[in-house]
Amino acid sequence: MIQAFNKLHRLLLQDRGATMVEYGLMVMLIATVVVAAVGPLGQAVSSFFTGVPSSL
Question: Hey, is 1 helix, strand or coil?
Fold first, then answer.
């Protein structure tokens, strides 16, 4: 039982290849935030510039 626990512990502590996965997750998270922000921001900018000629 202890040997199985030690083997599992060593397996979980290995970090080979983890950095590529972590970078991929960070890129995916950043892309999701950007996509979520572009929709409302684009609508706000569009409505702002639509109102500019009428105020001039």
Answer: coil
> pLDDT (tens digit, 0 to 9) for every residue of the chain, 56 residues total?
778 878 877 777 766 666 778 888 999 999 999 999 888 888 888 888 887 787 77
Give the position of tokens 């397996």.
Answer: 11
- Amino acid identity at 10: R
User: Which residues constitute the domain of residue 27?
Assistant: 16-44
Rounded to a whole number of angstroms, the CA Rg of the chain reads: 24
Q: Structurally, how many domains does the chain consist of?
A: 1
Contacts 24+ apart (CB under 8 A), 26-32: none
